[in-house]
Amino acid sequence: MRCASGASIIVQEVMEEEWTALQSEDRRLPSLWGPQGMAEDYDELAVFEEIQQELMSQEMGIIEEYERNLQFEQQYISSVVEGMEVVHIICPVCCMQNLHINSHFISCPCGVHINTKKQNITPDVLQHLLESRLSEHMENCFHNPVFSVAASTDNPSSLMISCQVCDYLSIVL
Ligand SMILES: [Zn+2]
Ligand SMILES: [Zn+2]
User: Fold this and answer.
1) What pLDDT was estimated at residue 108?
2) Could you tell me where the beta strands, DSSP code E, fall in 29-157?
3) Strand arrangement of the beta sheet that strand 158-163 belongs to
4) First-to-final CA distance of the chain
5) DSSP summary character for residue 155
6) Least reliable range by pLDDT among 16-25, 78-87, 103-112, 142-151
7) What is the pLDDT of residues 103-141, one digit of tens each?
8) Which ligand is nearest to the CA of 165?
């Protein structure tokens, strides 16, 4: 919705007020009117035009600000839509919650916390890693593998996939 017409109404209202103010000023100063009435009238017109110019530029300012807000709003909406398009990956360890994935770590309320600072893991990359490990295991075994986080004091924790039936063990991440 554009509010340009609304701004015009405001300009008109303000101008009417100015006009009324000018008229009442004239009434207070009747001596200004007289033989030079026409000249005064001309000056007044110039002042009036000046006010109009000023109000028009104010109106432009209002419109510009409105458009800036609109632009911001659109950016916000598109960022929200982008956020919704992000692949949600259910935590493979607890199979309950969505993994929280950012540029620094992957985490889950169940306790999974894997530092990914140097690996640039996006949800797409992680999904691909999980799928490739799962299909790798499925080539030889029909059982469901389990995911776990292996943590040691020396190395940063990593996500492991393992299967007790076929002794498959691999690092996902
Ligand atoms: Zn979890
Ligand atoms: Zn297996």
Assistant:
1) 94
2) 100-101, 105-107, 113-115, 146-150
3) 146-150, 158-163, 168-171
4) 49
5) S
6) 78-87
7) 889 999 999 999 888 788 889 899 999 999 999 999 999
8) 2
**Residue 166 CA: which ligand is closest?**
2
Ligand 2 mean position, distance from CA 137 (Å): 6
CA of 11 to the centre of ligand 1 (A): 60
| Cα 121–chain centre separation | 23
Task: Check: pTM over 0.70? Answer yes or no.
Answer: no
Residues 6+ apart with CB under 8 A from 32: 26, 40
Considering every ligand atom, which ligand is closest to the CA of 96? 1
Residue in the block written with tokens 């035009």: 49
Distance (angstroms) between ligand 1 centre and the Cα of 140 equals 26
Ligand with smallest separation from the Cα of 112 = 1
Domain coordinates of the chain in residue numbers? 4-85, 100-171
More confident residue, 23 or 168: 168
For residue 99, give the nearest of 85, 84, 114 by alpha carbon.
114
The Å distance, Cα 93 to ligand 1 centre, comes to: 5
Nearest-ligand number for the alpha carbon of 140: 2
